[in-house]
Specification:
single chain; 193 residues; alpha/beta; Rossmann fold; 6 helices; 7 strands; 26% helix; globular; binds S-adenosylmethionine
């Protein structure tokens, strides 16, 4: 899909999505105690910025990037309503270069471009944290993409971010009582050494 069609697709999606603030990703909400008290955070492919708003409330300076101008406008409005400052920019992260060792925290939720893994790690400061959560191929519910290119294989985040010290990894597969647990996504928190 061209960058233009991708932007149009997500603009259409965000033009009709709810106007209330979204919850942060589970990996950020559950492991928020690992966050530093200050520093610069990036919400990558932020959408309506549930993660960005959470990070700003935690006292971090926040940059948020998304390809959709509609999402970025709406995030700016949500931040303004809560008197929070977020540097929200329209950006195709597949094309624009990442700054070197800039961020203390990077959060990626429900977004996967495998070729960006190296740039994401490079963009973390030493000691910086990556919070990553997205859908797996083994997911049970229809939530998330159906194209396997956008779904994680078994333990894939561990391979993509193998250079980081792993603080959290959760991926439950299809083992045991499938009516329990979190089966659709993998959850990762790692620290750049
Ligand atoms: C499933 S949404 C997830 C949004 C948000 N991270 C969340 O968890 O609610 C995927 C997001 O990726 C954005 N996106 C897709 N391709 C992108 C690209 N090349 N550059 C920047 N953002 C992109 C879309 O606009 C959309 O907001």
């Amino acid at each position: 899909m061209s960058a233009e069609s991708l932007r149009e697709k997500w603009d259409r999606f965000y033009s009709s999505s709810p106007s209330h603030e979204l919850e942060p990703a589970t990996v950020l909400a559950e492991y928020g105690h690992l966050l530093p008290n200050s520093g610069l955070a990036l919400d990558l492919a932020c959408g309506l910025g549930g993660n960005a708003l959470f990070l700003a409330r935690r006292g971090l300076r926040v940059t948020a990037w998304d390809i959709s101008p509609v999402a970025i406008d709406r995030l700016e409005a949500l931040a303004g309503r809560s008197a929070l400052t977020i540097e929200a920019d329209v950006r195709d992260v597949d094309l624009a270069p990442f700054p070197h060792e800039q961020f203390d925290v990077i959060v990626v939720s429900r977004f996967l471009i495998r070729s960006l893994a190296g740039a994401i790690v490079d963009s973390l400061k030493p000691g910086g944290l990556l919070f990553y959560q997205t859908f797996v191929r083994e997911k049970l519910s229809p939530a998330g993409p159906s194209n396997p290119d956008y779904l994680l294989a078994e333990n894939e985040l561990l391979g993509l971010f193998g250079g980081l010290r792993v603080m959290v990894y959760r991926e439950e597969g299809r083992i045991g009582d499938l009516s329990l647990g979190r089966r659709d996504e993998a959850y990762f928190v790692g620290q750049k050494r």
